[in-house]
Amino acid sequence: MSLPGHRDLLEATAELTYCNPFLRERVALERRALGRAFEHHGEVWHPDELTAPNPNVVRIQERLETAVPAWRSELLEHGAPSREELRLYRDVVYYTIYNRWQADLLALVLRPEGPRRVALWTDFEAGHAFLLPPELQLEGQAPADLVFAWFFQLRRAFHHVFHSLHGSSRPVAELRAQVWQSIFSHDMRRFRRGLYSRIGDFTTLITGPSGTGKELVARAIGMSRFIPFDPRRAAFVEDFRSSFIALNLAALSPTLVESELFGHRKGSFTGAIEDRKGWLETCSPLGSVFLDEIGEISLDLQVKLLRVLQTRAFQRIGDTTDRRFEGKLIASTHRDPEEEMRAGRMRPDFYYRICSDLVATPSLRRQLAAAPEDLASLVQLIVTGLVGDRDVASVTAEILDWIESRLGVDYAWPGNFRELEQCVRNLLIRGSYEPAASPAPAASTMRADLASEVAAMKLDAEALLRRYTTLVYFHAGSFVGAARRLGFDRRTVKARIDPEYLARLRAASEAPSAPPDGTARRNRQTEPPGPRPAEEGGGGLAG
How far is CA 307 from CA 242, 311, 324, in A? Predict the structure, then answer.
């Protein structure tokens, strides 16, 4: 390659084609591609800041629209390019044509109707054929229809990951990066070599406190699976909107859970008046079944699901015919799997079949501790959904003022996003909200221990006041809430906190049974994989 001054641009772009857009590597590659023209952004890339196309992506694309045709001509003119040159050229072309048509791909994602002829295909096929003629293709290179299907998957995945998981904090950025890896793995090159057709064989387990958006994560993964494109019909073989099936196991009796999953034969139990397919049978090979709160199912049902995971075979209730589940299984639980196994409520062999891909959702407390400004954007999101676009700004400001004055900016939100949503609803209807006091069992034990120490007269007045103030602050969730209960001002509460006693209360609250701040005990299985999340703006192939 002899294009002067373009080597960094082309080599960095080739790497951008395969990078996780939510990790730091993307930022470094954009900086390398643009040099001094690189534009710095906020610390974490998130929807609240995306009011216009990312300038770095725009600048890279402008340069490529000139450089790639020139490079094509050079390769064809000189002939006999090396394998490495062809590989680099192909990857740069992929980046170029994806970004050329990404707005049209997004329109396909957002359109309400199901699969039909895709008009974009004609232009895409022509552009692909021009930039990647047979003379510039590697042996076994993917045909245009497969590339088109990959690009549609990328655009869907970016849309669902980027817009479903709200917030600007580093924990949310880490979550987006985890979800991206669940969809494509950490190695996009390997994914495109063939893993894209086998990713459904990997079960995803989402762990995290209740109310932290586990179903949003599952939906983003399920709605972003690879769907082949049929060039003869110029249409995708399936509509991604119908490919995700969610089942809340905690809301159903064991019999109903089994019937919903596996189906039943007529007369197999009272009320079975006809043969019925279960969701495992209904799900297409390109679809996903999401089992919410899988930690609630019985050991017997775990055995039956274990067979599905091991052999892909199952039987309807009352039937002896084997049927096959060809889709992807996604599960979630708010419980700690290690604790559930120790207590005998989860079979180890079952757990080790569902943990091939792990995603951990952060508590709202952790999210707001990293980015307090997220509270305003989350409240605005909820208000918009409840009252529409009218008066959103004034209603949001009113609710934020109430939360700051009555609960305090340091309120722990033990019910996570679900509690925040109900707080907003209460304020809209009644103008007030009273948090429920629901301490974890271990924290309640410490409260009983304090009462015993008082009864035994083991504490002096100062120690008693400090511990009691700390206990009230812990359960109130904020200095403002504790001050209202104690009759102190906020500064007095803050001055009387016992740091050691507070640390013990928090450690007790993070026991797996019922963490009051919604933060499950983290372990090696639930740590976010991979590098740290991206900073300073957006970009990458999916941007």
Answer: 26, 6, 11
Question: Is 184 inside any structural domain?
Answer: no
Residues 352 and 377 in one domain: no
* Distance spanning both ends of the chain, measured CA to CA: 27
Mean pLDDT of 73-91: 91
Contact 502, 424 (CB under 8 A): no
Q: How far apart are CA 303 and CA 314, in angstroms?
A: 11
pLDDT, residue 323, reads 95
Residues 23 and 170 in one domain: yes
409 plus 472 within the same structural domain = yes
Residues 430 and 482 in one domain: yes
Per-residue pLDDT tens digits for 124-136? 999 999 999 999 9
**What is the distance between the alpha carbons of residues 409 and 347, in angstroms, rounded to a whole number?**
41
pTM above 0.70, yes or no: yes
Phi, psi of 207 (to 5 degrees): -115, 155
Which of 150-164, 221-235, 468-482 bottoms out in mean pLDDT, i.e. has the lowest? 468-482
Q: Is residue 462 part of a domain?
A: yes
Same domain, yes or no, for 103 and 125? yes
What does the chain come to in residues? Answer: 543
In sequence order, which residues have a C-beta less than 8 Å from that of residue 478 and are 6 or more positions away? 407, 408, 409, 410, 411, 412
Residues 356, 368, single domain; the answer is no
Q: Kindly give the interhelix angle for 83-110 and 144-164, rounded to the nearest 10 degrees.
A: 60
Tokens representing 487 are: 């009759």
**Do residues 340 and 383 share a domain?**
no
Cβ proximity of 257 and 226 under 8 Å: no
Tally of domains in the chain? 3
**Which residues, in sequence order, are CB contacts of 20 under 8 Å at separation 6+?**
26, 177, 180, 181, 184, 186, 188, 530, 534, 540
Domain that holds residue 49: 7-178
pLDDT of 72 over the 90 cut: yes
Residue 530 lies inside a defined structural domain of this protein: no
- Whether 199 and 328 have beta carbons less than 8 Å apart is answered as yes
Give the range among 33-47, 292-306, 330-344, 379-393 with minimum mean pLDDT: 33-47
Beta-carbon contacts of 448 under 8 Å, excluding residues fewer than 6 positions away, are none
Examine the domain organization and report whether 443 and 475 are in the same domain. Answer: yes
> Are the C-beta atoms of 132 and 93 separated by less than 8 Å?
yes
Q: Are 424 and 494 in contact (CB under 8 A)?
A: no
State the CB neighbour count (10 A cutoff) for residue 163. Answer: 12
How many CB atoms lie under 10 A from the CB of residue 63? Answer: 19
Residue 422 has pLDDT above 90, yes or no: yes
529 domain residue, yes or no: no
In angstroms, rounded to a whole number, what is the distance separating the alpha carbons of residues 435 and 518?
14
CA neighbor of 356 nearest in space, from 334, 387, 331, 379: 331
Is residue 505 within 8 A of residue 443, CB to CB? The reply is yes
Element (H, E) at 331: strand 328-333
Q: How confident is the model at residue 438 (pLDDT cuts 50, 70, 90)?
A: low
